[in-house]
Amino acid sequence: MTVVTASGLTKRYSDVTALADVSFTLKENTIYGLLGRNGAGKTTLMRLITGQDLLTAGTLELFGEPPYENERVLSNVVFIKESQKYPSVYKVRHVLTVAGQLLPNWDAAYAQELLRDFRLPLDRDVRKLSRGMLSALGVIVGLAARAPLTFFDEPYLGLDAVSRQLFYDRLLADYAEHPRTVVLSTHLIDEVSDLIERVLLLDRGRLLLDEETEGLRGEVMDATGPADALDEFAISHPELHRQRMGNFARATLRGPFDQGDRLRAKERGIDLEPLTLQQAVVRLTTVGRPDEEKEYSR
Amino acid sequence: MDDDRPIFVQIAEMIENAIIDGSLPEEHQAPSTNELAAFHRINPATAAKGINRLVDDGILYKRRGIGMFVAAGAREALRQRRRLEFADQYLRPMIAEARKLGIGTDELIKMIETWEDAR
Amino acid sequence: MTRILAVARMHTVAWMNAIFWPWAILVSSLLVNILIFAAIRDVVPGDHTTGGLASIYLVLAINSAIATSQVFPFALGMGVARRTYYLATSLLTLVGAVAYAVVLLLLKLLEGATGGFGVDLLFFRAPFIAVDNAFLQIVVYAVPFLFLNFVSMFVALLYLRWGTNGMFTFSGAAILLGGLASALVTWRGYWDEIGNWLIDQPVPALVAGYPAAVAAIAAIAGLGVIRRANP
C-alpha cells in the first residue's frame, strides 16, 4: 500500500527553488531516512506532504489524495518539527490533552509511560522547558500519536546522547508492536543507519538516492593504493571522489564489489575500506564542490 | 555491526555461529525478529530478512503460532558448508600472501605444524 | 463536529489565561474604581462614570491576536485544516461574546441594585453602552467583543501571511484611503452633514450596529487570508 506518491514535485519561493522535480513513493510500514545537508529541501518536502505549504508544480498524493487543506488524510499524519513551538500559555499536560483530541490513534497511557521515561514534568509551562525537554515533548507526541505516517524532523537535536538512544529504542519497540510509516530526517546518519530501511537523499532540491539501506551498505568503498593501479581498478566502478598524495591516490567508488573485485584489489596492493552510511552520504553530497571537500575529514 | 556487509547477512551469520558452536541446539527456538531487532537496535524488517534467509537455506523452520526453530541436521549442514567455504576464504588469501613472501608449500606446512605445537 | 470542538478546546484548555485572567483584570479594575470613588465621593457628588469596562475588551482582543499567532500554527502542525480552525475559532468567539455579555448584564443588574456598588458607580452602566432593553443590552455588550476579536484576528493573519511588509502595506493603504476620504469630504464641505447624521443615529446603531457590520466584514476577509496562510 502506498502512503505517499510524489511525481515531479517542485517548490519555488520567489527566488529560491527549494525542490526540483522530486519523484518517489513512501510505502506503509517502513522506516525511512530522509537525509541531506541543511537547505537541501528536507523540511520543505515534509511541509508539502503535511499540507503546511502548497506545491508549485508536480503532483503529490497522501493516502491517495492531495494533502492541502484535506483533513481526512491529514488526520493520519503527525509532523514533529525541529524547534516545535507550542502556545506559550500551555503546560505540558495541555499539549498532551490537545494531542489526544486531535490525533485519532493517540495512546494516552503510552504517553504517560514516555513522560516517565524522559522525565518530563506534566505541570511545567512549555515556556520554561529547556531545549532538551522541548525535544523530548516533541518525541513523546510523535510516538504516542501512533499515526500511520509519522515525520520526525530532527526533533531530537536538543536531546543528549542517552535520551536519543532512549528515543531510538522506544521507536523500534513501538514500531515492532504497531508498524507504521516513519520518516526520520536527520544529520546524525550513523546513529539511525541501522534503523532505517530506505534512504532518501536530497541535495540542493534534487533526489540523489532512493535506495534500500542494506543495498548501500558495502557498496561505497574507499580504494587506496598506487595511483596507476587505482586508475585501472576504478574503471569498472563509478567514482565519486578522488584524492592524491604523491604516488598514492584514494578514490571513493560505488560498488557492488564482489569477491573477484576484492581479490583483484588485494593483488594490486589496493586497500578497500567500506564507508559508513554517513561518510558515503557526505561524499555523495560533496561531489562537484571541490572547495568544500577539505571540511570533511575521514 | 560491520559496515561492509548487509546487516541481515550479519544477523544470519550470528545465528549460524551459535548453531555451529552448540549454544543454539537443534529443535530449540531461535530468537524472534522483534527480540533481535531490539537487542541489536536494528529495524525489525532487517532482522526478519536475516531469519528468512536461514529459513530459505533450511537452517530454521517455522512452527505455526510459536516461532522459528532450528532444523534437525542444521548443525552438520552448516559445518559442511563452512568447510567448503574455508578453502576459498582462508586458504586462498593465505597462499597468495605466502607466495608474495616466497614461502613454498612445504615450508607453509611446516609453519602450520610448528604453530600448532607451540600452542 | 467533534473536530470543531477539539479545535475550540485548543483555545480554552489553558483556561487560566483564556478565561480567568481577563475577568480577574476586570474585577480588579472594578475594585480600584470603587475604592477611588468611595474615597472622593464627598468631594465629587453624583454619578461616577468610568471606562474601566474597556479593560476586558482590550485584554481579550490581545489574546485573540496572540492565539492566532501561536495556536493556529500549532493546529496546522497537528493536521487541522485552515478553514476548520477558522470556523471553530469564529464560533468560539461568537459563543464567548454572548456568554460574557450575559455575565456583564448580570453584573450591570447587580450594580443597579446596589446603587452603583454603594458609590453611585457607572461601571457597567456607562452612558453610551447602557440601554434599557435587556436583550439589546446583551447585543450591545457582545458586539465590541466580536468587533475587536475579528479585527484583531484579521490583522494577526495578515502578519502571518504577508509578514511585516504585508502589515505596512495594509496600514499604508488604510491611511491612504482615510486620507483621500477626508480630503474629499473637506473639499466638498461634507463635515457638517456627517456630524448631523452621526448625532441622528440611535446609540445602539453606533455602538452595536456598525461595529457588527465591520466585524462581519473582518470575519469574511480573515477567511480569505487564512486559506493561503502557511506559517
Tell me what the structure shows:
The complex is a heterotrimer of chains A (298), B (119) and C (231). Chain A is of the alpha/beta class and 298 residues long. Chain A contains 11 helices and 13 strands. Chain A has helices at residues 42-49, 71-74, 92-102, 108-118, 131-144, 161-177, 189-192, 213-216, 227-234, 259-267, 277-286, and strands at 2-13, 16-27, 31-36, 57-62, 77-80, 149-153, 181-186, 198-203, 206-212, 220-226, 239-245, 248-254, 271-274. Chain A has a 6-stranded mixed beta sheet, with helices on both faces. In chain A, helix 4 (108-118) runs antiparallel to helix 5. Mean pLDDT of chain A is 90; it is low at 290-298. Chain B folds into 2 domains: 7-72, Arc Repressor Mutant, subunit A (Orthogonal Bundle); 83-118, no CATH class. Chain B has a two-stranded antiparallel ribbon with strand order 1-2. In chain B, strand 1 (60-63) and strand 2 form a beta hairpin. The longest helix of chain B has 28 residues, at 74-101. The model of chain B has no long low-confidence stretch (mean pLDDT 90). Chain C is mainly α and 231 residues long. Chain C has one domain (2-226). Helices cover 81% and strands 2% of the residues of chain C. Chain C has helices at residues 2-12, 15-40, 54-77, 82-113, 116-120, 134-188, 191-200, 203-226; strands at residues 48-49, 121-122. The longest helix of chain C has 55 residues, at 134-188. Chains in contact: A-B, A-C. The interface between A and C is medium-sized, with 31 and 29 residues.
